[in-house]
Amino acid sequence: MAKDGEKGEWKEYIWNPRTREFLGRTASSWGLILLFYLIFYIFLAGLFALTMYVMLQTLDDHKPTWQDRLSIPGMVIKPNADEAFEIVYNTQDTESWDMFAQALDKFLSPYNDSVQAQKNYECTPDQYFEQEDSGDVKNNPKRSCQFNRTVLEDCSGIHDRYYGYRDGKPCIIIKLNRVIGMLPGKDGQPPFVTCGPKKEDTDKIGELAYFPPNGTFNLMYYPYYGKKAQVNYSQPLVAVKFLNITANQDVNIECKINANNIPAGNERDKFAGRVSFKLRINTKN
Ligand SMILES: *[C@@H]1O[C@H](CO)[C@@H](O)[C@H](O)[C@H]1NC(C)=O
Ligand SMILES: *[C@@H]1O[C@H](CO)[C@@H](O)[C@H](O)[C@H]1NC(C)=O
Ligand SMILES: *[C@@H]1O[C@H](CO)[C@@H](O)[C@H](O)[C@H]1NC(C)=O
Ligand SMILES: *[C@@H]1O[C@H](CO)[C@@H](O)[C@H](O)[C@H]1NC(C)=O
Ligand SMILES: *[C@@H]1O[C@H](CO)[C@@H](O)[C@H](O)[C@H]1NC(C)=O
């Protein structure tokens, strides 16, 4: 009996024919609740849209609003060393170094003089190439300076299409990661790359040649305004040729960027502005 009573109560709770209440509320009460939520959600959606709109207004397509203040750009070497940062090959075994030459061919192809002459502008060397916007008038697209492949001379792959790998005098190409707005160097002194042996390999590294001379990144390639503003930008390169490196031994090398306004590595990122790799050239079968 008690069970029946309970069942009846439940039924009545779901639909009470006397008061015409559904789940304890009348139709008009339900209507008001639905209406309230409808208005509430429309209001939330409107608020969200308004916030987004205001946010997007403050963004500039051509330069990031927020940028990490890391002032030391990362450095990359080509050909890409593997994850262990090792370039190891045998001069006797064409296959072991041909991939390096091919990687450099591919990497340097956009730097062909003909391509550069078509895409880029012949800038005045040794000074920043500034193209500021005047107030709200955007000076876009911005021009970029030519970096001709022939500047790399013996490491350009033009006279020696094996980049020295075959003769055990390999070339390594170095580039700095792009940093928007960076003005490296000061007082007309361009930043330059130096490579040296890690301590125990001092007498194995031999003589180095840098291209362009002194391993400089000319000031005219800075500042960089971003991918959208400066569509044809070609990052400047420095090539290093190892003229007399000791064969059949591991040689640990570190290259770094030198500029009087780029601090030499800091606590936050010991690898900023420098790159280390191992070079081993085997000459025996
Ligand atoms: C660049 O020049 C090399 C030879 O000098 C050629 O093999 C290559 O196809 C050229 N690349 C472009 C994109 O013109
Ligand atoms: C790059 O090469 C092209 C074609 O040879 C030449 O006209 C141009 O002056 C060179 N640019 C620079 C900056 O040397
Ligand atoms: C970028 O290069 C193309 C040719 O590849 C050229 O037509 C265009 O004018 C260049 N743009 C700028 C801003 O230099
Ligand atoms: C290379 O550096 C030396 C010494 O600092 C300087 O005398 C020479 O003019 C530089 N060469 C170039 C091409 O910048
Ligand atoms: C090359 O290096 C060796 C020692 O590793 C040295 O004896 C030789 O004189 C060097 N050759 C040149 C041309 O510098």
UniProtKB/TrEMBL annotation:
PANTHER family: SODIUM/POTASSIUM-DEPENDENT ATPASE BETA SUBUNIT, SODIUM_POTASSIUM-TRANSPORTING ATPASE SUBUNIT BETA-2
Record-stated family: Belongs to the X(+)/potassium ATPases subunit beta family.
Quaternary structure annotation from Swiss-Prot or TrEMBL: The sodium/potassium-transporting ATPase is composed of a catalytic alpha subunit, an auxiliary non-catalytic beta subunit and an additional regulatory subunit.
Domain of life of the native organism: Eukaryota
Keywords, sorted A to Z: Cell membrane, Disulfide bond, Glycoprotein, Ion transport, Membrane, Potassium, Potassium transport, Signal-anchor, Sodium, Sodium transport, Sodium/potassium transport, Transmembrane, Transmembrane helix, Transport
Name of the protein described by the UniProt record: Sodium/potassium-transporting ATPase subunit beta
Residues spanning the membrane: 30-56
Function summary: This is the non-catalytic component of the active enzyme, which catalyzes the hydrolysis of ATP coupled with the exchange of Na(+) and K(+) ions across the plasma membrane. The beta subunit regulates, through assembly of alpha/beta heterodimers, the number of sodium pumps transported to the plasma membrane.
Gene3D superfamilies per record: 1.20.5.170, Na, k-atpase alpha subunit (2.60.40.1660)
Signal sequence region: none
Principal place of residence: membrane
An individual GO BP term: intracellular potassium ion homeostasis
Topological category with respect to the lipid bilayer: Single-pass type II membrane protein
Gene: atp1b2b
GO CC term, one of those recorded: sodium:potassium-exchanging ATPase complex
UniProt KW Ubl conjugation keyword: no
GO MF annotation list: ATPase activator activity
Any one Pfam family match given in the protein's UniProt record, by short name: Na_K-ATPase
Protein species of origin: Salarias fasciatus
UniProt subcellular location: Cell membrane; Membrane
